[in-house]
Each structure stands twice: as structure tokens, then as C-alpha cells.
Amino acid sequence: VQLVESGGGLVQPGGSLRLSCAASESIFKWHDMNWYRQPPGKGRELVATISSAGIPLYADSVKGRFNLSRDDDKNTVYLQMSSLKPEDTGVYYCNLPRPIDSWGRGTQVTVSS
Predict the structure, then answer these.
(1) How confident is the model over 72-103, as pLDDT tens digits?
(2) What DSSP string describes the chain?
């Protein structure tokens, strides 16, 4: 399965971005999807996950600011990010852990004034 992220960019603190992750196959609809991020000089961390039933879970650091949703007809998940902070800066990756652990190439998010 190929995953392609889009929607990253440069935004000021307090701003918003919407990231998208498009999957190449409809098998996507049967599985959980994850968003990870990797801040500069740090390891990759789980930001949010959404179940095949559409139930999202969030890391404490983004709870109340990020919203994860999925459109199975479009094989796409969306990460709406609001009230962005400089510490949200990093490369954001989507991940389909099953049936084969698949990753996108990432999209850069930079929060800076």
C-alpha cells in the first residue's frame, strides 16, 4: 500500500493546517491509521490514531487542538491541526500498520513567527 501525505507548510503560532494522507488501495478502510511526527533532532512520536470504525485517539500534547478523521470512500485520512505551537514543528508521517506496515514519505510542518 502506498501512502502519500500532503498539506504541510509554514504557519504562524496559533494558526491551522490540514494534513491529508491518501492510500493507494481500498484495503485501507478495514484498518486503523496512525499519524506520527518527528521533531528536529528527536525521535518519531505517535500523534493520533483512528480506528477502522472512525474512533480517534490523541496524544496528550495535541488533545483538544488536533482532529483526525477518515473518508473511506476516498481512501484518505485528514489531520486538522489548530492552535499550532512551535513544538508542533516536525515531519508528519501517516502509517498503516496492518496488514503490512506501510509509511508515507512525510510532510514538513513548521510553526514559526
Answers:
(1) 999 999 999 999 999 999 999 999 998 889 99
(2) --EEEE--EEE-TT--EEEEEEESSGGGGGS-EEEEEE-TTS--EEEEEE-TTS-EEE-TTTTTTEEEEEETTTTEEEEEE-S--GGG-EEEEEEE-SSS-EE---EEEEE--
